[in-house]
Design brief:
CATH architecture of the largest domain: Orthogonal Bundle
CATH class of the largest domain: Mainly Alpha
Number of strands: 0
CATH topology of the largest domain: Cytochrome Bc1 Complex, Chain D, domain 2
Low-confidence stretches: 72-76
Mean pLDDT: 79
Oligomer: single chain
Shape: elongated
Number of helices: 7
Helix content: 25-40%
Order of helices and strands: HHHHHHH
Distance between the termini: 84 Å
CATH superfamily of the largest domain: Cytochrome c-like domain
Structural class: mainly alpha
Strand content: under 5%
Number of domains: 2
Length: about 200
């Protein structure tokens, strides 16, 4: 064992106490020290992000159907911001947004996957809320009949908007379902409506 003498304790105490005076002395010579470092307020002296970086603001937005987000997406692809109060009462498209995704087989396959994953638990596999599995446990939570005539009268943009921002008992899925996946779900819902013998409003 090392015997700690009064001499070492005194030296340790002086060294500890002298940190601040020593730091201040160096600050006097060099003009600054770590305790007085330059800092920036939020949004002060901002700089552009490096090329090909993915900004946080882009979220789950991608530059196109089936493409990965490798940089800032083109402006105009993403529908403008809106909230539940911006959804028209007549079921028309909020802010005039139009479905950019063709209802081809690839879209319908992806739409079915996402519908089964995110929607079927409340709306049923065929889009009939009364046949949903959640009804067995919560019989009062009968969701909209998505394959019925009422929803068939809604525009594509309105159904997209409901998915994105929610309304009434329908929560927002904008943070869980990506932009193009919402449109794939819209296309799949249209296929359910046709299967049920209803003729949906196309586009818009």
């Amino acid at each position: 064992m090392v015997k700690v003498t009064n001499k070492w304790l005194l030296l340790l105490s002086v060294a500890t106490i002298s940190c601040t005076p020593m730091d201040d002395a160096l600050a006097g010579i060099f003009g600054r020290h770590m305790r007085d470092s330059r800092s920036f307020d939020p949004y002060e002296n901002t700089i552009d992000p490096p090329e090909n970086t993915v900004p946080f603001a882009s979220g789950n937005m991608t530059p196109g159907v089936g493409q990965l987000n490798t940089g800032q997406p083109e402006m105009g692809i993403m529908a403008p911001p809106f909230g539940p109060m911006d959804l028209p009462a007549d079921g028309s498209s909020p802010l005039g947004i139009v479905n950019p995704v063709a209802p081809d087989s690839a879209s319908l396959i992806r739409g079915e996957v996402m519908f089964d994953r995110m929607c079927a638990v409340c709306h049923g596999a065929e889009g009939i809320g009364s046949q949903a599995s959640i009804i067995e446990k919560y019989p009062l939570l009968v969701a909209y009949n998505l394959s019925g005539t009422r929803v068939a009268g809604f525009s594509d943009g309105y159904i997209y908007g409901i998915l994105r921002v929610g309304r009434g008992l329908m929560p927002s899925y904008g943070h869980q379902v990506s932009h193009f996946d919402r449109w794939h779900i819209v296309n799949y819902i249209r296929s359910l409506q046709r299967k049920a013998g209803n003729f949906p409003v196309e586009g818009g």
